[in-house]
């Protein structure tokens, strides 16, 4: 039959009794399919724990998550704990049934006491499958275990002496820039990008043996941009597509993650080329890539490990220092600046040079240790940690959690739990942790089997950078046209609501040298 004849023939068939019947059955079938799909979850409702009411078809509770209500997921989880009257409840994230835990006691029960059961990560289809080896996002396979071990080794204390020669001059460079560019306190300055440069420099060195200053800035900016574009999607509930299977049937144009991954891979290639050229020229470079043989990792695993570290390092540590400064420079923080400087000098018998030299090498000032712990507790940079998936069934009291269920820790709430931290949990108390040597003072780094492998090095970097900044400067909040004031609220310090990692709001502050003559001497080192 020729094609012009086909159209009327098709019309005839469709409008015939049989045709209409088939059409009606298809419509009914489609409606039933959609009705089932709208409420389908990967696990049945769990008996014994409340479910948050008002789930929507297909997306479940996602309508309130992912920053859609201008609140981060942790804040919404706390509201649901109040609404359900329970610190543990279940929700639907698209088709993924998930259990949310909101208290220190329950975090301990699951994340610590059942650490090895909560060792997997939930799958995020449409994201993770675009990335290759990804330490933070993947289930704990043998491969990920090997990569995690290599990362732990690179970040472990025995390796730190190798990094002093990197961070010490970088931090001197930081102080020098703040002094000169901030015109000794005359000009307000945003310290964030300087901090990020110090941390990224270290991360680049320990992974690809390269340094920020060694490659041109535009290259680095694009590299960080691609890294951030990927971090923005990780475990975020902003994209319905990752949790609603039907949406993934709709073809997608070039996925943002794929674009970012290509840029990221191109940058890694340049770093690798430069590393290989330096090795060929006889340079002895000690970094994760050159330790490939020692750690028995394949090239793909090595890159996956390095990228995972580069991915996680710069903004988290920089934010820790930045938000400590935010609090210290406000009127509430000013007296603490003076107290910390006094405590530093006392710890080093009044020898300011010695204190300066030892900043990265030991944590000798309990008030400063307490200050950084309190910052990380009070301002929870990963408000809902990173979700986990169980590898075994769990029976807890009368509740049964099947193997494979997603467990979410509301870290922001756990870090402010009055039952554990006391009635002043919502206050910032710099000396809160003095005399408290608990290995888990807060859950800013998560807890248990997949706790951040960079806890100790991150703590030390924050400690040392704050120590050097306070020895060098009196840091002042400033008011004036166009000047941004710091936000020190424990929840609203960040306006990044749709991502896994919060970012402090940007602010300007003034850095006034405590002793300009001394500062000139110590910054003459670089
Ligand atoms: C203040 C700084 C930091 C904070 C607050 C932080 C927070 C976190 C959190 C909450 C997790 C999830 C833990 C869990 O599931 O229990 C995590 C995992 C991770 N972090 Fe960090 N982090 C920081 C710095 C860093 C740095 C500097 C690096 C790399 C050099 C890093 C690398 C990683 C990696 C690779 C993972 C995934 C571990 C795994 O899944 O096995 N983090 N971090």
UniProtKB/TrEMBL annotation:
Which segments cross the bilayer?
A: 20-39
List the InterPro entries: Cyt_P450 (IPR001128), Cyt_P450_CS (IPR017972), Cyt_P450_E_grp-I (IPR002401), Cyt_P450_sf (IPR036396), Cytochrome_P450_fung (IPR050364)
An example of a Pfam family matching this protein is p450
Does this UniProt record's set of keywords contain Ubl conjugation? no
Identify which cofactors the protein needs according to its UniProt entry.
Answer: heme
Q: Which Gene3D superfamilies match?
A: Cytochrome P450 (1.10.630.10)
Q: Which residues form the signal peptide?
A: none
What positions does the entry give for heme binding? 452
> What GO MF terms are annotated?
heme binding; iron ion binding; monooxygenase activity; oxidoreductase activity, acting on paired donors, with incorporation or reduction of molecular oxygen
Sorted keywords for this record are: Heme, Iron, Membrane, Metal-binding, Monooxygenase, Oxidoreductase, Transmembrane, Transmembrane helix
Task: Say which domain of life the source belongs to.
Answer: Eukaryota
Protein's name in the database:
Cytochrome P450
